[in-house]
Design goal:
With about 475 residues, the protein is of the alpha+beta class. The protein is about 35% helix and about 35% strand. Helix 3 packs across helix 4 and helix 11 crosses helix 15.
Length: about 475
């Protein structure tokens, strides 16, 4: 029995309107429910498309009532594949959870207030305490402040997951979807109801340390680093990485400088990779803020590093309760990792066991209250079966009172029995036993193989409740 349905569609049509419409139509083909039961649609599209036309194509199929969120992405992530120059659409449908949306403009002008407003409106529109919040934001150079604003409203107990929309490393063609197209915005989606988010991130470790040399930032302006150890930052970087070439050669060698990244270690020993994510006018530009006096370490990021990011993220998800298969796993992969080795990223996606997996490549990953730049982060959505079984069980027993006695008797008979034996144990006719079994089958508390009836894992959760 499916408690949460997820389906996806892809299109690489050159026409943005058609691409949006085709991807949505393809997603609907694999959905067992009707449009009325769709909770939310995720839309990621190439930065080279006209986003207004892509969104119009999606709405051409779905209409204007279903919430649509997402944004630009160099690659869409769909079950083991990186989709370039295309549109990917993911659809979530369930009666067991609800969503509320919020959007705020002016992320680069008043980032903290933007974060507060977007999440406040999302929670208000949800109308209940959220189980998690997803966030999509523009590349505005104040992402940490946006997260701080969200935390101001949420506190530290409600998990946050999401990322910064990306483009083709131009850092100026990013956009966001929230039933419309926005730039310089923050979009928040609050999820409430009977779902459990399992969130993880693959972090860098000292194993990737390339140099033990002490490196101190001696001149900086937030993300722009001018001097390291009192020396011009570019010259120092070329020396410590053994780069043989001009400043222009380094600026053009994106894979080299993304593969040799500086990191900062916080007071808890956690390492945050910073960059450079690009080099401009002879200055190292980092992906998140640093301060003068920060000590840096140089890390080598390669194919093995990417595999480790995936392995750690998957392991954390698998080890987190509850131990139910995910309905969908949302994935945010750093765009910098795909530049280092697209092949390794695709290889890891294809071997990932948390299917279906769906997401986008980012300029920054948001996990809980933290902001990362070189990570693989995941959020598996699983149904809260304990809560659902209680609600559905009460509804079923209220409507069909005899089902309580019936499932208890099946349990007494070892958890599985033939219907004829069940009828004898209950002292009823076999036909009546079939009638009693029908609601249990309908609600998913038992399964039937010919004349054999067996209590499902979902039914075992109900038994824990009705035995009390």
């Amino acid at each position: 029995m499916k408690f949460i349905e997820f389906s996806y569609g892809i299109s690489n049509d050159e026409n943005p309107l058609k691409a949006g419409a085709y991807a949505t139509s393809n997603a609907l083909k694999y959905l067992d429910t009707s449009l009325e039961n769709i909770n939310i649609v995720f839309l990621y599209s190439s930065p080279d498309y006209d986003p207004e036309e892509v969104l119009n194509g999606v709405k051409l199929i779905l209409g204007n009532k279903i919430p649509i969120i997402g944004g630009s992405s160099k690659f869409g992530i769909v079950d083991g594949n990186l989709i370039e120059d295309g549109v990917v659409v993911g659809i979530l449908a369930s009666k067991y959870f609800h969503v509320g949306l919020g959007v705020a403009l002016g992320a680069s002008i008043n980032p903290r207030e933007c974060g507060r407003k977007a999440v406040h409106d999302a929670i208000k529109n949800l109308g209940m305490l959220p189980r998690m919040v997803m966030v999509f934001m523009d590349y505005c150079k104040f992402e940490e402040e946006i997260i701080n604003g969200i935390v101001d409203v949420l506190g530290f107990t409600i998990p946050i997951f999401g990322g910064v929309t990306s483009d083709n490393f131009e850092f100026k063609k990013t956009y966001q979807y929230c039933n419309d197209v926005y730039i310089d915005s923050v979009v928040c989606v609050a999820f409430g109801g009977d779902i459990v988010p399992k969130i993880s991130v693959g972090k860098i470790t000292d194993e990737n340390l390339d140099s033990n040399k002490k490196i101190t930032i001696t001149e900086t302006n937030k993300r722009y680093v001018y001097e390291l150890n009192g020396v011009n930052a570019i010259e120092y970087y070329k020396n410590i990485t053994n780069f043989r070439g001009s400043n222009q050669n380094l600026e053009n060698d994106k894979k080299f400088y993304l593969s040799n990244a500086f990191g900062v270690t916080d007071s808890n020993g956690e390492i945050y990779l910073k960059g450079p994510i690009f080099i401009k006018n002879g200055v190292l530009v980092f992906g998140s803020n640093v301060m003068g006096g920060n000590e840096l370490s140089l890390f080598s990021i390669n194919e093995e590093s990417i595999e480790n990011f995936f392995e750690k993220s998957v392991k954390l998800i698998n080890n987190a309760p509850p131990n139910y298969p995910p309905s969908v796993t949302f994935c945010c992969i750093s765009s910098y990792l795909t530049e280092i080795s697209k092949e390794s990223v695709e290889k890891c996606l294809k071997s990932c066991p948390l299917n279906p997996i769906f997401g986008f490549t980012t300029y920054g990953e948001v996990v809980l209250k933290n902001y990362y730049n070189y990570t693989v982060s995941m959020c598996s959505l699983v149904p809260d079966l304990a809560s659902i079984s209680a609600k559905e069980g009460i509804h079923m027993i209220t409507k069909y009172p005899a089902t309580k006695e019936t499932i208890l008797k099946i349990n007494e008979l070892g958890g599985s029995t033939k219907i004829e034996e069940l009828a004898k144990a209950l002292g009823i006719h076999r036909r009546t036993a079939y009638d009693r079994i029908e609601p249990l089958l309908q609600y998913g508390f038992v399964e039937k193989d010919h004349a054999l009836v067996k209590i499902t894992d979902f039914g075992k959760l109900l038994l824990k409740i009705i035995k009390k």
